[in-house]
Amino acid sequence: MKKIIILTVLSFIVSATAAFAGTTSASIMITATVLPHCEFATVTFLNLGGIEHTGGGASAPAQASGSAQLWCSIGTLATIHPVLTLGGKTTGTMVRAGGEVGKSSDQLAYTLTGDGDGTFVGGGPDAIKTINYGVNVNDYRNVQPGTFTDAVSMLVEF
Fold first, then answer.
1. Which domains does the chain have, with CATH numbers?
2. Which pLDDT tens digit goes with each residue over 67-115?
């Protein structure tokens, strides 16, 4: 019986103390800003391979094609500049490895084309935007043999 009385008394003391305790509360604000994001998932390099003169006449056109896969966060408005905009064409010059920039026999002219839409709205990483592009070299009769290279930037603004 002592145990029951003691437990009853302790229970009463705890209950009585809780009635006199004060409380206060505060709200914690949680914020985050999700920034727009775009990223190239894949980019194919353009390699014309080995091209050779076919005789004394004009060179046979050399062509290569590739594509880039791009994704942007949901709702992000992205603009593709300028080479890969709708129907855009850019001419450039590849320089022969070890060659001189100003020497015509060390330069190989090309045209780069692309079919990007110009602008699009991102749909997240599962909504890939494919941008196709290609390179054409029409005349290489008056260049020295060798490996020619150039770098073209693909710019996406978001």
1. 38-157 (2.60.40)
2. 999 999 999 999 987 565 445 567 888 999 998 888 888 999 998 888 7
SS3 content of the chain, % helix, strand, coil (to 5): 15, 35, 50
Q: What is the dihedral of CA 114, 94, 62, 91, to 10 degrees?
A: 40
State how far the Cα of 132 lies from the Cα of 143, in Å rounded to an integer. 28
**pTM, to two decimals:** 0.71
Is residue 3 over pLDDT 90? Answer: no
* Half-sphere exposure (Cβ direction) of 157: Cα atoms closer than 13 Å: 8
Beta strands at 62-72 and 148-149: parallel, antiparallel or unpaired: unpaired
Whether 68 and 131 have beta carbons less than 8 Å apart is answered as yes
Strand-pair partners of 96:
148
**Residue 4 DSSP symbol:** H
Q: What percent of the chain has pLDDT above 90?
A: 46
Torsion of CA 96, 98, 99, 100, to 10 degrees: 130
Q: How far apart are CA 42 and CA 40, in angstroms?
A: 6
Burial class (CB in 10 A: 0-12, 13-18, 19+), 48: middle
